[in-house]
Amino acid sequence: MYTVAAMSENLTGTRILVVGGGRGIGAELARRTGAEGAEVVVATRSGPGPRIDVTDETTIARAAESLGAFDHVISTASAHHDVPVAELEHDRIRAAFAAKVVGPLLLAKHFAPLMPAGGSFLYFSGIVGWRPKPGTVVKGTANAALAALVTHLAVELAPLRVNAIAPGITDSGAWDALPDERRRALYDGATAASLAGRIGTLDDVTDAALWLLGAGWVTGETVHVDGGGRHR
Ligand SMILES: NC(=O)c1ccc[n+]([C@@H]2O[C@H](COP(=O)([O-])OP(=O)(O)OC[C@H]3O[C@@H](n4cnc5c(N)ncnc54)[C@H](OP(=O)(O)O)[C@@H]3O)[C@@H](O)[C@H]2O)c1
């Protein structure tokens, strides 16, 4: 007789830090890991809880000192700079890499030494890293760099695990600020490109994240949760 495993290990007794957990995918992940029994700490740049701005190492160091050990550290931080090459601005390029590449390295620097056996880091890349198109060179390169980063970190920090999720276009709330017409065009384009014939949901992405947190034999990987959208 088979027993069907739960989507993830039961997280009871674990402590999880969600950086960027104030909204979007991070907020839903905080809610779901909490529902699985974890003690969840949400760190934001300006919310009511502990403050972490991944572009400011002092805030990371202070948080590690004051909050102590976590079994899992998650970051969804990102900063966009989607312009043609001729319009690139140095500060905004740096901000994009600070959020997606430098920040994850600094989180590892300060939190890995405190992490118990079985601990993991989970970071967020994105489909654009594998789908080059004009106007997305910064985001694409930062997301692809994050995929390289998790393999390198996984080797150096082993047996701690380090993984990333690369979502496709997902209705996380992140696109709500776009004018309706632009959002519809984005969603229609992503639906047409997706082999699954739709954009992603918060459940699609957080199901994968919950699985990765408990996937003890998976490390150094970027899991593509994009409906196959990077294949065409
Ligand atoms: N949604 C999609 O379609 C999609 C597609 C591909 C990849 N992704 C990736 O998946 C991740 C989550 O996406 P999402 O849709 O949830 O995005 P989101 O709604 O824009 O959320 C991003 C979160 O990161 C936080 N953040 C930004 N910069 C930060 C910094 N310097 N330090 C700490 N926190 C910072 C934001 O906090 P504040 O509230 O302080 O701004 C926010 O909570 C992102 O990395 C994104 O690039 C998303």
TrEMBL record:
Recorded GO MF terms: oxidoreductase activity
Family assignment from sequence similarity: Belongs to the short-chain dehydrogenases/reductases (SDR) family.
Keyword DNA repair: no
InterPro entries according to UniProt: NAD(P)-bd_dom_sf (IPR036291), SDR_DHRS6-like (IPR051122), SDR_fam (IPR002347)
Originating species: Actinocatenispora rupis
PANTHER family on file: DIHYDROANTICAPSIN 7-DEHYDROGENASE (PTHR43477:SF1)
Top-level taxon: Bacteria
Gene3D superfamilies: NAD(P)-binding Rossmann-like Domain
Pfam families membership: adh_short_C2
Keywords: Oxidoreductase
The name this protein goes by in its record: Short-chain dehydrogenase
